[in-house]
Write a sequence for this structure.
């Protein structure tokens, strides 16, 4: 029933979603698009691709809301469970991790980076990021294997996460590690990211 537009990218929310969560998601998207906070998008190629894809985000509170949503034809979107948005995590990096960081990064990566720079960021085999991921997983697997080779440091086992999804997750783990977002999370993430 409402939206916030961040650099021409709309974020919609169902009525039951708290305003604080909608505003938080908008702030995270703004940070990813304008990391130096000068009021100008940092990478216009990615931004233009997001706009060309008619990309948007929507927040939902119940699975009924999520399942009832019918996206308009020709639009790219990412849906976020508002229950996974934890605004307070940002001030302490303790408690329940704010999953919106991963969701919004995946949205920007899949609809922006991967399309704008496919040789580097494509979710398909042979891009630079997928080759790095295959090294991290100890081999090339279209679906997560039942057991990863010894020495693998990215071991996501979600069988619903296809190869492109795995690349997106790997990309997020790199970024979140570099930015310190994984501090205090070892016991929570070591089964997937060592």
């Amino acid at each position: 029933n409402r939206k916030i537009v961040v650099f021409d990218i709309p974020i919609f929310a169902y009525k039951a979603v708290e305003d604080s969560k909608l505003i938080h998601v908008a702030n995270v998207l703004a940070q990813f698009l304008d990391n130096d906070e000068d009021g100008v998008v940092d990478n216009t190629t990615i931004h233009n691709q997001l706009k060309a894809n008619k990309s948007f985000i929507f927040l939902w509170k119940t699975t009924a809301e999520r399942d009832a949503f019918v996206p308009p034809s020709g639009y790219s979107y990412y849906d976020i469970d508002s229950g996974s948005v934890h605004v307070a995590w940002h001030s302490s990096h303790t408690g329940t991790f704010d999953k919106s960081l991963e969701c919004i990064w995946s949205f920007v990566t899949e609809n922006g980076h991967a399309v704008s720079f496919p040789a580097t960021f494509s979710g398909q085999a042979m891009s630079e990021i997928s080759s790095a991921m295959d090294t991290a997983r100890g081999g090339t697997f279209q679906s997560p294997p039942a057991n990863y080779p010894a020495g693998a440091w990215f071991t996501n086992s979600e069988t619903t996460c296809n190869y492109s999804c795995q690349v997106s997750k790997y990309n997020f783990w790199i970024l979140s590690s570099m930015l310190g977002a994984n501090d205090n999370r070892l016991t929570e993430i070591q089964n997937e990211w060592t």
User: Anything to note?
Assistant: The longest strand covers residues 55-60. The two ends are 41 Å apart (CA to CA).
